[in-house]
Each structure stands twice: as C-alpha cells, then as structure tokens.
Protein 1
Amino acid sequence: MENIEPQFIAICFFIFGALIGSFGNVIIYRLPLGKSVITPRSRCKSCEKLIPWYHNIPIFSWLLLRGRCYSCGARFSVRYPLVELIMAFLFYFLYLRYDLQWITFEYGIFIFGLVIVTFIDFDHFLLPDIFTLSGIVIGLLGAFINPQRDFFDAFLGVLMGGGFLWLVAYIYWVLRKEEGMGGGDIKLLGWIGAVLGWKSIPFVILVSSVSGSVVGITMMIKNKGNLKTVIPFGPYIVLGALLYLFGNIEITQWYTRLLFPSQ
C-alpha cells in the first residue's frame, strides 16, 4: 500500500503534463501570430468547425481519430500529441526526481515554459520575451522566497548565463560584422541561470554547443556544404537545461571529480 500513493501521484503528474501540453500547443501556434491564447476555441484549420471537447483529449483523441479531423478528414500534425507526450513525461519524471516540494512547483513552471519556447524557436527562430524575461523575474523571485534555493546563486546565474552569450555574440559581431546569435538566446540562458543557478551554466553551454554543432554540421552536409545554414540554437540550450535539471546532483559530483580529482 505504501507504494500505491507515489505511483498514483506520478500518474497524476503525467496526466496534468499532458493537459497543459495541450494548452501549450495553443500557445505555440497562436502566440507568434499575435493571437489570443484563450479565445476562440480550437477549430479545424481546413473546415473551420469547432473541435468538441471529447475530440480534444490530449494524446488519446489524436490516436483514436488517427490524426484526422472528425468532420472533414483533414490531417492534424503529429506535433500535437508529441508536445503533449513530452510535457507529460517531463512532469512524470519531475515528480519521481523531486517528489512533492516547493521546488517541484517552480521546476514545473520552468519546464512548461522551456517546452513552449523550444517549439516556437523551431518554427519561427523566436524566443518570446514574455517567457524569457518573465522567466528571469520569476526565477529570481522564487530564489528569494524559496529556502531551498539561494538568491545570490540565482543572481549570478543570470549574470553568468546572459553575460557569456552576450560576450560571444559581441565578439562574433566585431569579427564578422553580422549577428551570429539572437538576443533571445542570451535571455534564455539568463532565465536558466535564474532558475538552476550559476553552476548549471558551464554544463548547459557544453551540451548546447556539442548538440548544436552536431546538428549544424549534419545540416551543412545535407545542404552540400552551405556554411550559411541557420539553425535555432534555443532548443539545444533547453536540452542542456533539462539534462541538468534531472541530473544536477550527479553532474555536480562529476564537476567536483573533474576539478578536484583528489577529493
């Protein structure tokens, strides 16, 4: 019986993640277009008919309808259940990793924002200020209120995260006289520093640089050596942040062994 309650709570986190993932899909599509994320209700883009609530159940409705509109048969993108599944599993593992505590609530807000900006960046090469700048403020406020976190650590995270990418962008501009990194990436890394602290920044930069380089080189080869191939960098920064969020204890121990091998 003792194992039933944690399993039940974990399932509730999964369901909640899928539900807010469904809302996240609305934000991903509408926010860059300047549309309200509240109204109107979801419609089929082909026939313009309202989608009834029972055809809008996260993950299951898409599977039951085989990814098609119930009215006109138009295809719905696999992106919708994908975002819902990603959000559901992230919330599921968030509970397993951190249990029920204040920091779990903070990280839940953080994960929700990171998934949304990832897909917006994929689609529009845009990281909205309403998430990045608000995330910095909320991250600092959380560090000030939450006794599990340290405000100075979060403040240094903002300076170190945003400052590092700003310096890289500035050097690139001086050498090439063109923009090589958007301001959104700078604010995104500042937001990550505000939530995860300054110690997360080197790891996030390492992961994003390696993963982004692999994808960039692959795209360059695919485009027959076109060095002007542009890819959004935000998703790879987010990947590094999520890996650190779920493995920070192990990563911190790895840092310690790397820097102080005799310890």
Protein 2
Amino acid sequence: MKQTTTPSNKDRFVIIMAGGRGERFWPVSREKRPKQLISLFGRQSFLQETVERVRPLVPLRNIFVITHAAQAAEVRRQLPRLPRGNVVAEPCGRDTCAAVTLGAALVGARSTTAVMAVLPADHVIPETRKFQRVLEDAFNLAARGQVMVTIGIEPTEPSTAYGYIRVGDPLPTPRGARRMRTAFFKAEQFVEKPPLSKAIDFVSSGHYRWNAGMFLWSFVTLTEALAQHQPDFADACQRWFKVAASPRLARVLARDYPKLKRVSIDYALMEKARNVVAADGRFAWDDLGSWPALARHLKADAAGNCAVAEFLEVESARNIIYDARSKNRTPVAAVGIKDAILVLTDDAILLADRNQAQEIKKLVARLPDRPKFKKLL
C-alpha cells in the first residue's frame, strides 16, 4: 500500500446520504419527513443521531448532507449548527452513485487531499464507541493507501434482507503504521440479497459480512475509480467540482442530474474495483428497514407484543402497536389479534399483517391515485 501521511481531522469529511422516501415506515414517515428525519425511539431523529456519532472524528463544517429538495428545509431545521451550504439537495433521485459523485465534488472543492466517508442517514448503531473505533481506523487506512474501504457488519443471523460481502484473509498492518484495533480483509465479492439457504451457508462459513452501505476513500482514489469504471460520472464530478462552492451548483445539478443513469455505488464501483477492502464491523447495527424490524429494539410482553402506546390485550400475540399521535392519544385494546401491525398518526391509521410489511410500499404507491389520500404522501 502506498504510504502517505495520516490526515488530520481537517482533512476528514463525511457525506451523509439522506434522500430516501421511507415508504416502509408509512404513515409515520412521509415524503417531506421520511424515515431518516423521524424519531422512533427517543428525542433525536436518525439523521441527528448519525451526525452526533461522527462529530468526535470530523469537524461539523466537514459534514455534508445530501438530500431531496422536498426534505432540505427539514434537514436544515433539524441541524441548525450545520452550515447552510452543507445541506445539498439533489434535483431528482438517481441512486447512490450520483450522490457519491456529488459528495466527491463537494469535498474536493474544499480539499483535494481529503479522505471521505459516505454513510446512510437512517441506521441504528447503539454501540457508538465501537463504531467510532472502526471508522477511525478506516479513515486512517483509506488515507495511507490506494484502497476503497467498506465497513462489513459481522452477521448475527442468516438474514435475507441484506446484501453480503465475501471476505478473504485478514490484511497485514501497513508498514510504518501503528497496529489498528480493526481487522481488514480483501473484499472478494459483493453478493445480492440471497435466499435463506444461501444466507445460512454464508453465515456458517464465517467468510461473509453484511453490506451496510458505508464506504471510505480518499478524494483521489474515488475520482480515479470513477474515471476508470464510470466515465460519465467522472465527467459530471469535474463539472460539479468547478461550481461546488458557488450558487451556480444548483443550476448545474438541475441540468445534469436527469441525464445520469440510475445506478448504485455498489454496482457502479465496488463490484468492479479490485482495490476494495472490508473493515470488520464488530458493533451492533440495524438498518431498520420495516415495522417488524422495530420490534428488535422494543421490549416485548410475555406474548411477544411490542407496543409504544397504552396497550391492553386478551389472547393477542406478536403484534406491533405504535401510537405516534401528538395529542388525544387513547388506549389501544386488542382481543384475539395476532401478528398485526397497527400504527396511529394524527391523520392516518395503518393496519397490516406483520408478514406482509414489505407490501406497505405498494400501498404508498397507490395514494396518489385517490385525491383524498394524496395528502398522506
């Protein structure tokens, strides 16, 4: 690996991707206030928690949030100390490669010697210090060599909801570097969400990690990879780099974005590159992709009911009850109900079979077809 000087904090940047619509957590999440901008457990939203997790490692002025135009105002409201120009709205969704490319232009305009982390805004990471240790080591490794780092989570179950990364043997510590607390492996293959039988094999082998969508690289390494594997995005990055610090950026993005292909950074770069390493993410993690996932973080009663509500039941089991109403909350009573999801907000109620939670996205897609329901988007 190429030896370079370990960067100071001023050369570290974080790009937080916060543009998702959050349909799976409807009706609490909406288009203007999706999952990353809501709070399901405490006072802070997922986005606010993400910023707080990285602040000990990165100056606030070096944290960018890339979001959707409809959400930018709420992002700024939730992060009042973040410089206004650090919240950048995409004119339309083009998946994660476009967001990463935009992040590179923003970072490069500040420092071409920078190292940047790209993190989702909506993950649950209760073991903050363990996460910070891994992120610190990944920053240092990305700065020392021409590698792209992804943080792979050690699987705790054969989940079919996540992609996987097959890893090789542990990599040696770079020459001249102090020993890191995090193990790193060569990333040998990125695997799409597998069927259960394969997921069981992956977990039992010990050679696979969950793909958490967290990446680190230097500005130079990333832009070189774009030039090699995605020249259209590399050209866009150069154009955006020139105007990143000016009011012209929004106009240029509005012109360029609709022309970009819709592709994930995993497919666009990580699956093609040969210089990808995986950091061993040994910390509690959840991307909380649906209402049933919420139950993993709530205390259940003896029958397996999880309730954030005044809840009374008879012969009811394994239900998820979430009352998000701001006022006029009333008790929820269930008799003989099993495996249901009940979510109450001020203007909508969701009742769903727990085993059909992934179909909530289809329900949200139908809202625009009914004029009286369109306001619930």
